Amino acid sequence: MSKEAPSGGNSWNLLEPDPGTFTQLCAQIGAQSVQVEQIKLLDRDAIRNLRPIHGLVIIIKHKLESFISKDDSTATINSSNNHIYFSNQVVHNAYAMHALLNVLLNNSNTIDIGKELDHFKQFTNDFTSMMKGLTLTNSHVFRQAHNSLSSHKSTLESNSEIYHSISYIKYDGYVWELDGLKRGPLKLGACNDNNWLDVAHNEIAKRCEMYQRQNLTVSLWAVIEDRKLVYQRKLIEKLYVKREIEYLLDTQQPDWRMRINVPHWEEEYKHTMNQNERNKRGKLLFTQLLSYCKSFDQLPVQDQNMIHSFLRKNSAEEKREIMDTWLQVQDDSLRLYENLGIELEKQEIYEASPP
Questions:
Q1: What is the model's pTM?
Q2: What is the pLDDT of residues 315-337, one digit of tens each?
Q3: d(CA 98, CA 106)
């Protein structure tokens, strides 16, 4: 079910799998606050730590001479779920665009996909999966964005390897497998917000084992929310928790600052912030991101409820344990500032790397 575009102005260049390239591709086609990260195949903890995750993607590298496109006729879409966006991979080198759109366009309620992608989704809404794939690969906008990130020309003579991508998403209470070489989406199993990643990963593990037995190279990728925004929100939470704990202790145990030598810990905190370049840059970035989220009241309601529950639980504990929580919040904040600095470094490397 896959073919190559003709050479010349309508060809898709070879795009090597890379987190920076995929992240920039999302931005170039209009998706806002989206990031793509590679994950170790069997690392469930890494997947959980990257939440919120919009979708998972596996990418399989095949030798062109041995590649056989297989279609599973049982993987047809249910008529009651034809609102799922799904396109066939009709051009080998457009594998990344197919994989990303199969995630982005099925998460348009939680991702700002931008006008271009929204128009494309609406325009192709009633198309077959094959027509969606053909429309995608014939799009000058998508092809130009893709090719601007690649230095490799896509020709039958130069390409000895091809990539095949499969996306996994949560939609309408189920995990779906979106394999562009099949006729339609495959419903894998029922799920909820808490367990969908486990359901998807179980299937991915079986898939990867099968491909590895065939000596094929497989990689796992996550389409996630921009980590800078995630860390910024977490810092807003930490600042709120710190303030609430201080108010509680000031009210109920006024000498607490002396008991744990707060001036010492505050000085240690300031010293670490000033000596660690990543922390300093992270704090500056945090300040710049206050235009995104300024206060606790602007956090998602579920996050506010989680923090309130945490504070209610801790307010019933021994005061010594609450003091320990205050100290832990200080350490957590330093790590979050450093993480922000790391994300800024990654962004700068992505933007500076030539195609």
A1: 0.90
A2: 766 778 899 999 999 999 999 99
A3: 12
